[in-house]
Amino acid sequence: MSKVQGGMKCVKYLLFVFNFIFWLSGLLVLAVGLWLRFDPETVELLTGDGAPDTFFIAVYILLGAGGLMMIVGFFGCFGAVRESQCLLSSFFACLLIIFGAEIAAGVFGFINKEQIVEEVQKFYSSSISDVSNVNGTAIALLYHKTLNCCGGSMSETSTTLCADSTPEDTPDCLTAITDFFNDKLHIIGYIGIGVAGVMIVGMFLSMFLCCAIRNNREVI
Questions:
Q1: Does the reported pTM lie above 0.85?
Q2: What single DSSP character describes residue 171?
Q3: Which sign does the torsion angle of CA 134, 136, 139, 143 carry?
Q4: φ, ψ for residue 60 (rounded to 5)?
Q5: CA-to-CA separations, 17 to 22, 75, 81, in angstroms, rounded
């Protein structure tokens, strides 16, 4: 027999639907994290000796959050169906922890946003500073091809690798790097905001249902 009746039964099914959506959100976060990690353009720009890894740290946090969301969403669905006060309390605690971790990751990303871009710019500038370095030349040419840019370094040799047919309106690579990684980081930020909103709704629903189950037990 169901432990909740009336309006709380509606909350129960709402929580079940929410958890299914939360599970799908975790799947989406995981998919976006994998895309950012294995995106050919990103991988090409951040490979090689001395390449910065701050961007990938943020991506790994995103992957971990996505996997954890899928696990928590599954147990949340189970707790709602079984009307288990213990599982619902655990679900609320997990959501609270994930929410806190997401806030921390967001603050980390916001604080280090400029650092990520600067590290990549320095990596590009150091690779193009000496055209006699074969590895550095290969990295610079890779940036030119991937970002459709040319030059931008303070070095006098920064434009020697640019093709003669390069259009005049071609952006410099330092600007192109800024635009490229800002777009990627904005994607992470938008997803984080959306998931945070979903989690707040889930915490409210789980607490309502948990309190309803406890009150019904006290009445019985």
A1: no
A2: P
A3: negative
A4: -65, -35
A5: 9, 13, 11
